[in-house]
Every structure is written in C-alpha cells, then in structure tokens.
Specification:
Blueprint (H helix, E strand, L loop, with lengths): L5 E5 L4 E6 L10 H15 L6 E6 L25 H9 L5 E5 L2 E3 L1 H8 L2 E5 L3 E3 L13 H8 L1 H10 L3 E2 H7 L4 E3 L4 H13 L3 H15 L5 H15 L2 H11 L9
Parallel strand pairs: 2-3, 3-4, 4-6, 5-7, 6-9
Antiparallel strand pairs: 1-2, 7-8
Length: 256
C-alpha cells in the first residue's frame, strides 16, 4: 500500500481535489491512506489561494470505509492521527469542502461526507453505518453521523446497519444535491461556479462562524464577537470590491 492510493491535485481556479484511488477495493482505505488524505486537507486548508477542496473516489464508489485487518503505511509526513482526529480536521478545515458521492459511501467513507460542507450524490449512491453488523459501534465517529443525519435516523441506521438511498440521505440533510451518476462532474461545476461568486475570505469567515455557533452557548459576548466580525468585513477590501461589482453589474475580481 502506498500514498499513490491517495491522489491530490489543484487547478488554476484554486480548486483542490483529493481522490481515494483504490477502485479495485471499492476505495476502502487503510489508516495510512486516511492520514495521507488528512495531510492534504491540512495543507490546503491553510492556503488562502485554495478556494475549495473536493473529496471523491476513483471508479464506481466513493469509499467502502476502513480496510479491516489490512497493513498500513505511515504517510511521508510522519503524522499519525486516529479516525476522529482526521474527521475533526476535515470538519474544521477553513476552506470549503465538497464530497462527491457515487456508489458506496459506507462507514468511515460516510464519516468523511458527514464532515464536508457540501455533499453532491448520484441518485444511485447508497450509504450505511455497518459497524453493528460486525459486533462493534461506530465509536467517536458517531458524533459526525448524528449531527449530519439527526438522532433518530442515526439510531435506526447505526443499529440495523442497513443501507439507505441517496434520496433518504437528502431527506435527512446529509446530502444537499442529487443528480444522475453521469452528471456528477457537471453538478460539481455548477456548485463551484456559485461558490466562486462569494468572496474567499467571506466563505472562510462564514464557516468559522458556523463552527462557533455550533459549539458555543449563545451569550451577549458571543453575539458581540460575531457582530464585530461582521462590521470588520463590511470595511474590508473584499467587501468594497463585492459592492462595486454589484453596482457595476459585473463579476467580482475573485471570480475564476
């Protein structure tokens, strides 16, 4: 097993793509692969030139989850994180993250999707949390499953281990956009084009505010902090360009 099982690239628009590249194993991953994926997320999340990070799988499936019992290779960075730490890194990545789902999205693969800001799925995709069928629980990944699916949906599907459809996933709120399998790249392009209209600093600030609201008690001090951030953003160069582009009926200079 090598890090070539995780492919990474970035295009001229600043769209980074991380691909789980093990199609002969339904893109099941070892912890070495999972850590290599995390290294790319960590690197690109801190790079202001990166406008979004897309996570996808090669071939017919997104990911069948962890490769149980297979040996693992420590990534070149030497960093070894556990599954929760990797999911937390994806969840808190400052850059917008998009999961592109086809085929199986199972176990840890579903956890990756649950940590992304946006999820686009083929109608033929399927999802499951199968650990109970192996006599286990989903451990700390349950945090992300329950948040993305809701408590009642999580309880059902984590207890039964049964598959659920992309349509079911959309009803739960796990998936935002559905399309035909052959239209995944076109659906991704449309979402990225919409994202490109938003200021790059603003999108990162929105994500930071969302995380703050999700993990904090709403207090006057918190509201004051958020309002101060809003006031500062109004006076930024990005806001001046955004308002000018609106008045002049043109694309902002950050659109690529």
């Amino acid at each position: 097993m090598s890090e070539s099982s995780i492919l990474a690239s970035i295009d001229a628009r600043g769209i980074a793509t991380v691909t789980i590249n093990r199609p002969d194993k339904a893109n099941s991953y070892t912890m070495g692969m999972f850590n290599a994926l995390a290294d790319h997320i960590e690197q690109w999340g801190s790079d202001q030139a990166v406008r979004a990070i897309v996570l996808r799988g090669a071939g017919r499936h997104f990911s069948a989850g962890a490769a149980i019992g297979e040996p693992s290779v420590v990534p070149a960075s030497g960093k070894v994180r556990n599954s929760f730490e990797i999911c937390e890194l994806i969840d808190t990545c400052p850059a917008p993250t998009i999961a592109l789902i086809q085929g199986a999205c199972v176990g840890g693969g579903l956890a990756i999707a649950a940590c992304c800001d946006m999820v686009i799925a083929a109608r033929s995709a399927f999802f499951s949390i199968p650990e109970a069928r192996l006599g286990m629980t989903s451990g700390t990944l349950s945090v992300y499953f329950q948040r993305a699916m809701g408590a009642h949906h999580f309880r059902r599907y984590a207890q039964t281990g049964e598959r659920f459809s992309a349509e079911d996933a959309q009803r739960m709120g796990l998936v935002q956009t559905l399309c035909e399998a052959g239209q995944l790249d076109e659906s991704l392009r449309r979402v990225l084009d919409e994202l490109m209209f938003s200021g790059p600093n603003a999108t990162r600030a929105v994500k930071a505010t969302s995380a703050l609201l999700a993990n904090s008690v709403l207090t006057p001090g918190l509201l004051e902090s958020i309002q101060s951030q809003f006031a500062a953003s109004q006076n930024s160069d990005e806001a001046r360009e955004g308002k000018a582009s609106f008045r002049e009926k043109r694309k902002p200079n950050w659109f690529r």
